[in-house]
Amino acid sequence: METIIEAHGLQKYFGSFHVLKNIDFEIKKGEVVCIIGPSGSGKSTFLRCINQLEQINAGYIAVDGEIAGFRREGNRLFPLPDREIARQRQAVGMVFQKFHLFPHRTVLQNIIEGPVGVQKRPRPECIAEARVLLKRVGLADKADSYPGELSGGQQQRIAIARALAMKPKAMLFDEPTSALDPELVGEVLGVMKELAASGTTMIVVTHEIGFCREVADRVLFMDAGAIVDVGTAAEILENPKNPRVKNFISAVL
Amino acid sequence: MNKPPALDVNSLEIVRPKTIGRRILAGVCIVLLLLLAKAFWEGDIAWNIVSQYLFARPVLAGVGNTIIMTFCAMIVGVVLGVLAAIMRMSDNPVLRNIAIGYVWLFRGAPALLQLLLWFNLALIFPTLGIPGLFSVQTVDVMTPFVAAVLGLGIQQGAYTAEVVRAGILSIDKGQTEAAQSIGMTKLRATLKIVLPQAMRVIVPPIGNETIGMVKLTSLASVIQFPEVLRSVEDIYYVNSRVIELLIVATVWYLIVVTILSIGQFYIERYFSKGWGRRNAPVQQAGNQATVEEAV
């Protein structure tokens, strides 16, 4: 299986705070990786680095074989211009904790903004695709609503549809259910399970242990900016060997 | 514990509070206003002159010029303001500092002084142009109209820049990130996603400043631009009906400002797309909460 996203020797600082410490990571096509760990362990920052919303200080990330943010000549890396970075970002879809739908645009306009406005694909085709996506996330009747009229769970499903509309090679989920009321979590996880089952490459930062157990091919445990443990869902969640992982799992369950 | 005796709910009546103090205050205010009106009515004002000049041709022409000047200066101001705000928030330190310097300079000097500077530009640059390509006499270009548009518009831009910046800052950073995550460049995200939302916050103060500009155009009378104040001045220099003609100008300023306020209402409604509906249920919930608290 081909590698979609890889990270090597990743270092990231916020000022003097060492957020990511020497992260090595790889995800193959169709794989679902869940990242768990305590708050402030760098999980979200890692996702944001993949999508170049944060800049890394050392190491490199490659998406689909292309180094993120740089052009390589021999051993020298030249930073890419804004326009090129924007192009690279299209390869990965991102779903945010707080949805970040565009409140002044209808649901349909939110979804086609990327394909029509950025990818310059024909509008009728994009609208047709958007309607298929809306059906897929169970909101076919909400095309003309504004985000403010929808519940949190519905907004997050629209945000997933908006990311999918770009036809990304992988999807990143940054705590997609953390801002939701408990009874709305299920509908979003349901959509994500369907995506996983259909072979979407996914990295999910989450606190939903049940979801990890059910869909993750691999679970990463991060703490204090480093990947502490990696394994199958059963290995990490059922009988963790590492004491820190053990503590965390028993605390959240 | 003392249980209060049960009351017959249907027989209860809410008695309206007495408002004697309020009535007395209202009465006093009305009397004072009437006295003021009487004083003006009996004062040495020839109201027939006011009505005679209200629709006089030079006055109407002045009103037209005031409106045209307001719009031209505001267009210059808003364009410069948006540009300066975006430059101010850019990652490029050169652009950022140019924007800071622009706001510092043109917000710092009085508008009247700036008008005079532009109008007298010929004193330092007798000709304008690119050497060898073209060249014009500065006095031919720098008419009162051009000097007023530049002077008022450029100083307005310095204020508008801060208003636009405040509007952009009011939008969650997540909006830019979401736009970037679907492949927009930062500039495109600012123009297509952030600015339209920021307009909700920007429009009320810009409306305020447009109304301010209507009145600020009166400064252009100093450099011979025939706006409404200048027009009435030219008339009262001849017939000496100073107060009457100043009242004519006042009436017209009030009319123009009133019309602009109505226009602002519709513009605000346009830019609150997707927001009104969101705010409605939230407000309802808020009202319910206060009702419950009150109960």
Walk me through this protein's architecture:
- The complex is a heterodimer of chains A (about 250) and B (about 300).
- Chain A is of the alpha/beta class and about 250 residues long.
- Chain A has nine helices and twelve strands.
- In chain A, helix 4 packs across helix 5 (about 150-165).
- Chains A and B meet through helix 2, helix 3 and helix 5 of A and helix 8, helix 9 and helix 12 of B.
Distance between the termini of chain B: 22 Å
Give the ordered list of helices and strands of chain A.
EEEHEEEEHEHHHEHEHEEHH
User: Percent helix among the residues of chain A?
Assistant: 25-40%
Instruction: Give the helix tally of chain A.
Output: 9
Strand content of chain B: under 5%
Question: What is the subunit arrangement here?
Answer: heterodimer
Give me the secondary-structure topology.
The complex is a heterodimer of chains A (253) and B (295).
Chain A: E1 3-14, E2 17-28, E3 32-36, H1 43-50, E4 58-63, E5 66-67, E6 70-73, E7 76-79, H2 82-89, E8 92-95, H3 107-118, H4 123-136, H5 152-164, E9 170-174, H6 182-197, E10 202-205, H7 209-215, E11 218-223, E12 226-231, H8 233-238, H9 243-252
Parallel strand pairs in A: 3-10, 3-11, 8-9, 9-10
Antiparallel strand pairs in A: 1-2, 1-4, 4-5, 6-7, 11-12
Helix pairs in contact in A: 3-4, 3-5, 4-5, 5-6
Chain B: H1 20-42, H2 47-54, H3 57-88, H4 93-108, H5 111-119, E1 127-130, E2 134-137, H6 138-141, H7 144-169, H8 173-181, H9 186-216, H10 228-239, H11 242-271, H12 276-294
Antiparallel strand pairs in B: 1-2
What's the quick description here?
Chain A has 9 helices and 12 strands. Chain A is an alpha/beta fold and 253 residues long. Chain B has a two-stranded antiparallel ribbon.
